[in-house]
Amino acid sequence: MYRGLKKIELTVLRRSLDYWGAFELSQELEFVIRQGEKNDVFAVTPEAKYYLMGKEPEPVTAGLHIGEIGKKQLNLSLEGAYLISKMSDRKKIKVVGQAESLVLYGRDVFGTSINWADESIEQNDKIIIANKYGEAIGLGRSRFDYSGLFADRVTVNTEADLGLYIRSQSEF
Amino acid sequence: MASKVIQEFKADEKVKGLARKYRYDEYMVARFARFVPDLEKFLASMEEPPRTYIRVNTIKVSANALIKRLTDKGFIVKALDLPDCLEVMSEPYSIGASAEHLLGLFYIQDMSSMVPALALAPVPGDVVIDMAASPGGKTTHLAQLMNNEGILIAIEAEPARMPGLMLNLGRCGVMNTVVYGMDARELSKLDIRADKIMLDAPCTGEGVIAKDRTRKTSRDISDIEYCSNMQTELIDAAYECLKPGGVLVYSTCSFAPEENELIVDHAIKEHGMKVEPIPYGEPGLRSFGELKFDPQVVNARRLYPHIHGTSGFFVARLKNV
């Protein structure tokens, strides 16, 4: 069943978006939740939201999957990361062209491949890995704080990447 | 099931020779000989590797910005007359493996497959239905023409094709879709009336032989009849859900008139629909063997590989008057 967000879920969503520097998205977009074992959050148009509420038969999916919402945080999807990356640089690193391809094959990020990073990044932060245009190509976790991110070693673990699309194509 | 008259023709020596030369079943070449202009050139063109086209996803990027990014990476692309359509002239590596593709900045799609969404011409605020959505080429195209606004109901009957559809919708940043896994012939169960409907119907796929050579011999007359019957049921279901004044675009990637003109002829005669002109391709057929079609059917359009440089395609824009 698709439903709107409860007050507590809206708070969690806003807090998570704020972490990424994209609080405004919570005001600009409409969101629905598909209730199940995981509570998936989707960004939808107002018309789609109106249509979806309590609809039978239940649609398979709707709108753009932003992530899964838990009691404390929103686990961002890559689509959600892309949306955020277009409006904010918070908790983001940008990698050079060659590293872009490596990230898309799931490889971790070498510090020498990073040409820009947000100064607020701390050790073990969830971060957006972006290309030189600032577009999210992956999600990762920092091994060091900002000052250690540029060292000549792996400084960011890649946890999800857009290359999954190619790697999963044989399944379709 | 509606009863159909599938046309069969005796193969003469020329047809037999061409069927042998290009390794087709004779019945197919005998049928092509009745309506395809410049038959041997047509058959030869199907042996050529298909050209690569991409559609700029204007939800995420402008054509100029995409061209610059691809050019910087060594791709050579050429803008064509069709809106948002680029032809890939040269690629240093597969363009499908580029970050721009993974980011959803474009969709790899034959130029002919871009015509149906342009013919439907949805606008923000329309209620639109895509009756056979996967893998999502036309669905994402419709979404971008709608400026990612309003509501687009996407139907896919085959569960195995659903993950590909969902992945492409996500990749392209589409927010206005509601996706159903159901047989589109039961569309009326959704109790929705649409301003515009896209019916890119399942077909025998004669038009994509250049991409899949097995289709020269893997289909027979019974497959055309099966598809034709299903297409009739699908267009009937579409009509039931179309608002008065609404528009339906019917398309296939088949050359078979029983899957194309005959279905449009049915929509005219059974539902009083009007066929509106489309500014691409060759006119629809007036007749095929013993089948005579309503004069309006010529407003439908056919695309041929040897004339248009695309896969084979049929498209018709029908208005519910």
From TrEMBL, chain A:
Coiled coil: none annotated. One of its GO terms (molecular function) is RNA binding. Transmembrane segments: none annotated. SUPFAM superfamilies: PUA domain-like. InterPro entries: NIP7_N, PUA-like_sf, PUA_sf, UPF0113_PUA. It comes from the Archaea. Pfam families: pre-PUA_NIP7 (PF17833), UPF0113 (PF03657). Residues 93-168 form the UPF0113 domain. Residues 2-77 form the 60S ribosome subunit biogenesis protein NIP7 pre-PUA domain. PROSITE patterns: PUA. This is Ribosomal biogenesis protein. It comes from Methanooceanicella nereidis.
